[in-house]
Amino acid sequence: MTSASPAAPASDLWHHYGRRRAQTDRSVPERLYWTWGQDSGPGAEILGDLTGARVIDLGSGAGRQAAHLAVHHPVDRVDAVDASATQHAMARDLYGHLAPRLRPLHTDVTAHLREHPAAYDLAYSLFGAACFTDPAVLLPAVADALRPGGQLVIATLAHYLTGQPPAAGIRAAAIPAKLPDGTTTTMFRWVLDAHVWTKALDGAGFTAIAAERLSAAASSPRGADTLLLRAIRTAEPDVRSAPPAA
Ligand SMILES: C[S@@+](CC[C@H](N)C(=O)[O-])C[C@H]1O[C@@H](n2cnc3c(N)ncnc32)[C@H](O)[C@@H]1O
User: Fold this and answer.
1) Which atom of ligand 1 is nearest to the CA of 107?
2) Which fold does the domain 26-236 belong to in CATH?
3) CA 129 / ligand 1 centre spacing (Å)
4) Model pLDDT for residues 138-178, shown as the tens digit of each residue
C-alpha cells in the first residue's frame, strides 16, 4: 500500500497539504462543499443528474470530493487528476479501493485534457487547478475535453486572502510557498474578478455562464468568500478556431 506521507520530489509545492488529516481521516465525505471553509453552502446537488456521467476533478488533491461523487452519486467514473506526487499518492492510498469508479491520475491537467477531446460530461475544480493554472491555457483545454453541453464548475477565491479585491484582468499573484525541504519559494495563484472569469470562459467556448459569491459562514475559522462559477460547453462547432468572415 502507498504511504499517506510519501517522499516528494523537492519541487512538490503540495507536499504538506492535507497530510495531517490523512493520518486520521480515511472516510469518504458524506457531502461535498464548494466553499473555502468547507463547512457551508450548496453541495453536489448543483451538478444535476450525474447518472452515467464521466467526471474529471481538476487538481483533486487527496481526492476527497472525487471519492464522494464516486460513492454517493451514480457516475460512470471520476478521474481525480493531480500534478503533485504527494497528493496523488495520498489519493491512491485513501481511495485506491474505489477503482474503477474513481481513478487517481498523476499528471498536469492541461496535458491530460488536451489528450482527451470530448471525453467528459463534467469537469470541476474545487480550489484546484483553476486557481493555480493560467486560465488562458486551462479553460480552452477544459472546453476541448468536455462534450458539447458538458458542464464546468469552478470554486475559487472571491478575493485575496489579505482581503484585497480580486484582479481586474488575467493576472497571477505570486504567493509564498514552502518546498518539502523547508526552503521558501513562490507559487502563482489566479484570483480574478467574476467579470474577468466570465469573459475568459466566454472566449474559451462556454455559454450559460453564472457566477455566484458564497459568503463565508459567520462561524467559519477560515473566513474567505468563494466565487462559484458554472458554465456549459457550447454545443456549436468550435467558435474559437472559426476563420474570420470574408
Ligand atoms: C489547494 S489544493 C486543492 C485540492 C482539492 N481540490 C481539495 O479541495 O482538497 C490544489 C491542488 O491542485 C493541484 N494542481 C494545481 N495546478 C494543477 C495542474 N495544472 N494540474 C494538476 N494539478 C494541479 C495541486 O497539485 C494541488 O493538489
Assistant:
1) 21
2) Rossmann fold (3.40.50)
3) 5
4) 999 999 999 999 999 999 999 999 999 999 999 999 999 98
